[in-house]
């Protein structure tokens, strides 16, 4: 149910999110010509063009980019308004925006899929959105209100957010089968030998052994898939979560460089804004993720 919405703004935001009219027609369920009429009506009401469209493709104008950010904020507030009023009838409704870091689906202690199943099994009218970003990016989106809650290894915690421990993630150091250390004897696997080789790190989680002589990575990546690709080249060593690397190790593509000084842990937490009025959907999912983590422990 839409109590406080603006169809023209919703169309504009959807077109921008989809990168043009073609994909937006499927998201909105209307034709491209109908979308064009709505955008034209919006521009007439505003008195300026919000986007360029044509053979050169879709792009926002300078004013359009500002309007897009403001429109997203307005629509988010409108959905919150709808949810708060509708929850007076004990309905689970509104938006639920969850943030996570990449490659958490197989993290044994988290069991995110189970938590989502529990939440979605209830009668609800919730619009679910899952955002994947770095811990720093998730923190900023929580503070701004773009996310309701987030799950990540928040090493740098801020006073605006509250954090609840959920589980821990084990990390080990790996090489690909084309790397010189892949067939090296176990006796050679030590920090001094490993420091001779280039290694890669995630930009948001620099896991480096204090015993390594080379503290700075020679390659930096934004996510686990990129890390795995660099390791697989045989040119880099890199730390990965055990659950993420397990299938590659079993397939003979990766080798764990086993040594007590080459093991790390990341502590995952559930983060929410301290000042946030917890809606029913947020409260329910928060409890569902706690229960899923407890069951997996």
Structure description:
The protein is of the alpha/beta class and about 300 residues long. Among the domains are: about 1-90, Winged helix-like DNA-binding domain superfamily/Winged helix DNA-binding domain (Arc Repressor Mutant, subunit A); about 170-265, D-Maltodextrin-Binding Protein, domain 2, CATH 3.40.190. Helices cover about 40% and strands about 20% of the residues. It contains 10 helices and 11 strands. Strands 3, 4, 5, 6, 9, 10 and 11 form a 7-stranded mixed β-sheet that branches. Strands 1-2 form a two-stranded antiparallel sheet. Strands 7-8 form a two-stranded parallel sheet. α1 packs across α2 (about 20-30) and α1 (about 5-20) packs across α3. The radius of gyration is 23 Å and the shape is globular.
What is this structure's SSE topology?
Blueprint: H1 7-18, H2 21-28, H3 32-46, E1 51-52, E2 59-60, H4 62-86, E3 93-100, H5 112-121, E4 125-132, H6 135-144, E5 149-152, E6 161-176, H7 191-194, E7 200-202, E8 219-221, H8 224-232, E9 238-241, H9 242-250, E10 254-256, E11 263-273, H10 280-296
Parallel strand pairs: 3-4, 3-5, 7-8
Antiparallel strand pairs: 1-2, 5-11, 6-9, 6-10, 6-11
Helix pairs in contact: 1-2, 1-3, 1-4, 5-10
